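Milestone M4 deliverable, item 7.
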Amino acid sequence: MADDRMNADTPVFAIAVAAELAGMHPQTLRQYDRLGLVVPGRTRGGSRRYSMRDIELLREVAQLSSEGMSLPAIARLLDLEAENRALRRRVAELEHDLREERANRPGVRVFAAGTSGSVIPVPSGRRIRRSTEVVLWRPWVAPADPDDTAR
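Output delivered:
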């Protein structure tokens, strides 16, 4: 049953095993932890426990380091990648919310002012009697072709 809860973020590997899986010395993992490059989970006793995602990150750090990138530059790159992932998640959430909002709105809405000054929605396709109502707002729809903006 415990296997059902395990995923790539579950911290299970002791430092010696993680170092072997990443192809590094355990002292390197300790230094990366101190620098904040790869921060593993901790047991109640304070021992480091690495997840598979941590192992992948250690391998990425090793690759970047072998290509000549400094550890501060790698730290900055990892921060920017994390920020990018968070922003992409937020954009996806907002796009989802927008799609839901549009799906819950029936068609294009038009509003009119009644004779008493009240704002009333006008169902799509209904003609407005100009003598008693004036159109106040109609949603603007962007043209498919940028050259069509002059119309």
